[in-house]
Amino acid sequence: MAKPKRVGIYVRISKDRKGQELGIQRQEKACRELCERLGWGVLKIYPENDISASTTSKRQRPEYTEMLRDARDGLIDAVVVYSIDRLTRRIAELTNFLEQQQEHGFAFATTEGEDTATANGRMILTIKGAVAQQETERMSERINSSLLQRREKGKPHAGGPRVFGFEPGSNFRRVVPDELELIRLGYRMLMDQKTPGDVARAWNEHGSRSSGGETAWAIQKVKRVYRSERLGGIVSYKGQDIGDSIYPHPLTREEWENVQTILNVRSTPAKKGSGKRKHLYSGFLKCGHCGSTMRIQWATILGRTFRRSFCHSGQVGAHGELGCGKVSRSYAWIEERLNEVVEAALAKRMPKPQTAPSEDLSGEIKILEERIRGLRNRWKADEMEDEDYFDSLKHLRAELQALHTRTAASVVRESRTETDALAVWRDEDMQNLERRRAIVASAIKHVEVFSVGRGRKKPPEIDSIKVTPVGAEPESPEA
User: Fold this and answer.
1) What gap in Å lies between CA 203 and CA 218, rounded to an integer?
2) What is the predicted pLDDT for the residue at 415?
């Protein structure tokens, strides 16, 4: 079997609190040394820093996914890792990897010397994978046991984003006096039959800003504050209430439960599927006056039902302030104009008739091969020193390998079938909405919508919307 010449090295470390990537650098060095001993040529590094591969982790591993795709497509012909637990700690994922290796025929090696060429070697590798998974699960059990003991002592979970009312970095052990007063004020207002919107306006008038993005308070943000169990000092573990916090908290448990009763009475259950996008340009339309994201909804006025896009005065705008509420437009005209913009962008991308390949590397490859043969003949004839011969040969082979890699990648690209984006775009079935929105996102960054006044009979002017395409340079501020 020929030695691999396009090796992909996969390196991963679960925790890198300082972000220095020292762990993956050491792994890469060891893997490169292994490739040098085996005579394998390294083509690409796939680094995953500060990403876990355990059974409890839900984070995606984009570099691992790309590495497998490149191996299946033939862009790399071997995979090298430091050890099997760097590749994965899940036995199911390891089994899938070994199946992919056998199906697509790429080589695999670790610095610990595992052999996947034989049944015994694959069995030993699978056993090591099972041991790695067991270590992860045992570690998770120890951590969960420790966390449960802390909760039972009245110490809440210290992680997660800051909750309004608690001092940043205090691990929910200290409260902020000014924010505590606002929470108490909001509680009294809610008990006095005021609404979360009234509380939001009161907090904004006091100059307060939300703890997440330092933006103005809106109804949903106020609700999120009062929905947090931390406000009532409730300690929970895996969704179960197991006691009260030993640290200060803005509300008592009884007060927090009173607020939940009020919020539950005011809330109405969302209809099934209501969280899904229903309009093609939801999220793309911005108020031309204040910059906040405009909403789209069905409205009935004077017996006429239509879709409208409007700036909501309860929506937080681009600069952290509430929306101005000054722009309200019929959505149908905007949608028609933007459809024309997207279709024009797609028409420009339509594939042109296939002609001769734009890059023919066969001539360059032939020249390099002839130079290598001539170099070898000179060396055999004792016309050049060994040191000069091997140095020149290494350089020419590196150039030749690069050309072969470009040729192989070109063949792979041409063999892949591309989806006809225009056909997808013209399929207006609701089941196809998310795919159409993805096409919109590839062409349009955002759209500013301006007011056209009341009582207009004529269609709006085309400049009543301003489309910013993807890739457009941001406008420089005026001097």
Assistant:
1) 10
2) 41
Q: Would you tell me the crossing angle of helices 253-266 and 219-227 to the nearest 10 degrees?
A: 140
Q: In the prediction, which pLDDT does 147 show?
A: 59
Contacts 24+ apart (CB under 8 A), 146-149: 147/237, 148/237
Q: What's the distance, Cα to Cα, between the start and end of the chain in Å?
A: 67
The identity of residue 378, as a single letter, is R
Q: What is the pLDDT of residue 251?
A: 93
Contact 248/175 with Cβ under 8 angstroms?
yes
User: Global pTM?
Assistant: 0.46
List 78's β-bridge partners, or say none.
7, 107
Judge contact between 75 and 5, C-beta under 8 A: no
| CA separation for the pair 323, 285 (Å, rounded) | 13
Interatomic CA distance for residues 424 and 426, integer angstroms? 6
CB hemisphere CA count around 464 (13 angstroms): 17
Instruction: Report yes or no: 24 and 11 within 8 Å, Cβ to Cβ.
Output: yes
Task: Tell me how far apart the alpha carbons of residues 313 and 361 are, in angstroms, rounded to a whole number.
Answer: 61
Cα angle 352, 353, 356 (rounded to 5 degrees) comes to 110
Rounded CA-CA distance 422/411 in Å is: 25
Q: Where is pLDDT greater, at 153 or 69?
A: 69
Alpha helices in 213-358 (DSSP H): 219-227, 253-266, 331-349
Amino acid symbol at 370? E
Residue range 339-368: average pLDDT? 74
Query: pLDDT digits over 197-216, tens only?
Result: 899 999 999 989 887 667 88
Structural element, H or E, at residue 111? none
